Amino acid sequence: MAYIISVNATIVTDSGGTCVCPPSSTDLCDTNQDYQLCIAGLRRDLTTGTAAISALTTFCMGLFANMPIGLAPDMGLNAYFACTVVGYHGSGLVPYRVAVTAVFVEGFVFIGLTVLGLRQWLARAIPASIKLATGVGIGLYLTIIGLNYSAGIGAIVGANSTPLELAGCSPQYLDEDGLCPSAYKMRSPTMWIGIFCGGILTVMLMMYRVKGAIIAGILLVSIISWPRPTPVTYFPYTPVGDDAFNFFKQVVTFHPIKSILAVQEWNISEYGGQFGLAFITFLYVDILDCTGTPYSMDFEGSAVAYLVDAGGITIGSLFGVPPVTAFIESGAGISEGGATGITAMVTGLCFFISIFFAPIFASIPPWATGCTLIIVGSMMAKSAKDINRSYIGDAIPAFLTIAIMPFTYSIAYGLIPGIMSYIIINTLAWLIEKASGGKIKPADKEKKEPWTYKLEGGILPPWVTRLGKGKKDFWRPYDDPEYLAGSSPERSSGEVDEEKVTTKTA
User: Fold this and answer.
1) Which one is predicted more confidently, 374 or 286?
2) Whether residue 106 has pLDDT greater than 60
């Protein structure tokens, strides 16, 4: 999981954070020296913030929920946060301060959904094809980010006559439209270093199950890019390069968060629609990531894990980072034998130690992490094989979700047509069948994936159900050993335990 420290900082830095770009700027302050110095400080703040919230939430997951699950800012939501909601250097839907306010509010909503048990219900109520398609679409979205200039290797660029165009030239050769002249395409040395050392090498290490393969590729490219008198240096002899190199030379130091700590903006009256769109998208994707993927099973005490997750989202917004979620990379620790919260607590302590190596993590260039985004995107896209293609009412909405996310550079714009088309297509089919008395129905209806809004055991969480039935120690399940032994304080020694008999029979 360590790669998230530099990758998240790189992606979110593109938003500009609290740095202010004058509206009169024609190039979004790409050549504004003062703005670029502010951006450099922002990346250091984000490096500390990412490591700090990952340390806190991962440790708490192990301590309070006793689960070997690591948490950190979400890969996908961080890109949506930076590239769409805030936009490149603040050119998106809402300012950075309003975006972290949306994350702050979302965390509290998650807490409420968890306490009421609605979070699990919402995750299961979403059609399976849309859930799978969302992961694939986000994977392609991350791939485009990994290929572009701002947070990747610079292999593609936006064009005039076509939506995208092959790039791969060094930034100084870009023309006035931001395009690569034909004579310089695919000749950037940093791009090729990123492809071979950060991409091919990483994939080869992963093929042979070498531990830390992603981090190894990132570090190799970074080490190659750190010497100053080279064509691929990350520290050019400019005021911005000098400032970054002076910070890098400190190696071990604590960098306090200065510019993005608790910067919420609560006056959202002029951003109502955009604020709501960002909030709902954060909520939707977090429900899938935090509930549907790692916690696909309901288990007694899962509410504690959900609460840690939800609380981490709100606290993380105070650190200026996108929503926190459970990481699928936790499977690496589980596969090595990690079965309790001790695994997560040790991981959390490692994240805490990394806070003091901010000069290293903040000095990793984007071409070192670009291929990481592509690799993560490819792993997310593998769920495409599980989408039900036998029934067109499942396949078309899923395809729209997958395609529109990367094509519009927005997770939200991909979710809207996917969900709406699913509702319209399948509702119309249902109405036609009902109106015809069952005589007219889709030819492949039997191949449609089952869907229901009902949740086994009901929508309410078990503790609410037990409380409603008058169980005094409602926090203890009916199949608790002490409860079955008759030690519950609400039972007298001579009372017949019908529930106990029923539970044992079941």
Assistant:
1) 374
2) yes
pLDDT value at residue 80: 92
Distance CA 307, CA 115 (A): 8
Average pLDDT (469-480) is 72
Residue closest to 154 by CA, chosen among 125, 113, 195, 94: 195
Per-position DSSP letters for 409-476, written without gaps between them: T-HHHHHHHHHHHHHHHHHHHHHHHHHTTTSS--TTGGGSPP--S--TT-SS-HHHHHHHTT-TTTTS
* Beta partners for residue 272, in sequence order: none
Question: 60-64, 252-256, 300-304, 493-497: lowest mean pLDDT where?
Answer: 493-497
Amino acid making up residue 289: D
Show Cβ contacts of residue 309 under 8 Å, excluding neighbours closer than 6 positions. 57, 61, 71, 110, 290, 324, 325, 326
CB 116 within 8 A of CB 129: no
Instruction: Record the tokens describing residue 6, joined without a space.
Output: 């530099």
Q: Which one, of 90, 36, 98, 68, lies nearest residue 241 by Cα? A: 36
For residue 458, the model assigns a pLDDT of: 65
- The reported pLDDT for the residue numbered 328 is 78
Is residue 42 a contact partner of residue 82, using CB atoms and an 8 Å limit? no
What's the chain's average pLDDT? 87
Q: What three-state secondary structure class fits 72? A: strand
What's the Rg (C-alpha) of the chain?
A: 25
Give the Cβ contact number of residue 49 at 10 Å.
24
Distance CA 295, CA 132 (A): 15
Label each residue of 245-266 as H, E or C.
HHHHCCCCECCCCCCCCCCCCC
Of the candidates 136, 110, 72, 122, the one whose C-alpha atom is nearest the C-alpha of residue 411 is: 136
Using CA atoms, how far residue 60 sits from 54, 278, 413, in Å, is 10, 27, 34
CB 340 within 8 A of CB 330: no
Mean pLDDT of all residues in 432-450: 92
Does the pLDDT of residue 238 top 60, yes or no? yes
Element (H, E) at 156: strand 156-158
| pLDDT tens figures, 370-391 | 999 999 999 999 989 999 999 9
